[in-house]
Amino acid sequence: MTNTTFSRRSLNLAGAVACAAMMGFALYAEHVLGLLPCNMCILQRIAVCALGGVFLLAALHNPRALGARLYGALIGLVATAGAAVAGRHVWMQMQPPGSLGSCGADFSVMLEMMPFVTVVKRVLMGGAECQAITWSLFGLSMPVWVALAVAVLGLAGLLGNWLLARPSR
């Protein structure tokens, strides 16, 4: 096992652990602090879980150069999607109160009635329930922190898997 392989595997494992910690805090906020997630929060949770899953697969698989670069690209793609969803949520929170309509029923109820893609489109169009800021740290709402964390993790995963995948000379 080379030092590069160990470093890349460690990076991917750290990314998976970071995503698990984010989900742990989301569940703590929901079940202990009593903050019910809105539909946009659910989409962000899905993105964080997907990102963590890709990081975990990359760590377990630990492929050679081409595979590492593919994992890096996939990590970047999933992180970009997660940051976009969180960014959209931040945009919703910045709109004047009452300026957005309702995005519909609870996420799980909508999934029972409509295909996943339709539910995602409907949720992304906005909803008044997603405008409420119920938690903040240093003046930044939870979606801002999710966007920052996912962007940093995505960049680290992309660069780490690309740069550390180069064959040693």
Overview of this protein structure:
This protein is mainly alpha-helical. The protein has one domain: Up-down Bundle (Bromodomain-like). It has six helices and two strands, in the order αααααββα. It has a two-stranded antiparallel ribbon. Strand 1 and strand 2 form a beta hairpin. Helix 1 packs antiparallel against helix 2, helix 2 packs antiparallel against helix 3 and helix 2 packs parallel to helix 6. The longest helix has 30 residues. It is elongated. The two termini are 15 Å apart. 33% of the residues are buried. The model has no long low-confidence stretch (mean pLDDT 84).
**Which fold name is given in CATH as the topology?**
Bromodomain-like
The CATH architecture: Up-down Bundle
Largest sheet: 2 strands, antiparallel
Record the strand order, biggest sheet. Answer: 1-2
Write down the overall mean pLDDT. 84
Low-confidence blocks of residues:
none
Tally the structural domains: 1
* Alpha-carbon Rg, integer: 18 Å
Distance between the termini: 15 Å
From N to C, what is the helix and strand string?
A: HHHHHEEH
Give the CATH class: Mainly Alpha
Put simply, the count of helices is 6
How much helicity do the residues have?
Answer: over 70%
Strand content: under 5%
Shape from CA axes? elongated
Tally of strands: 2
CATH level-4 homologous superfamily: DsbB-like
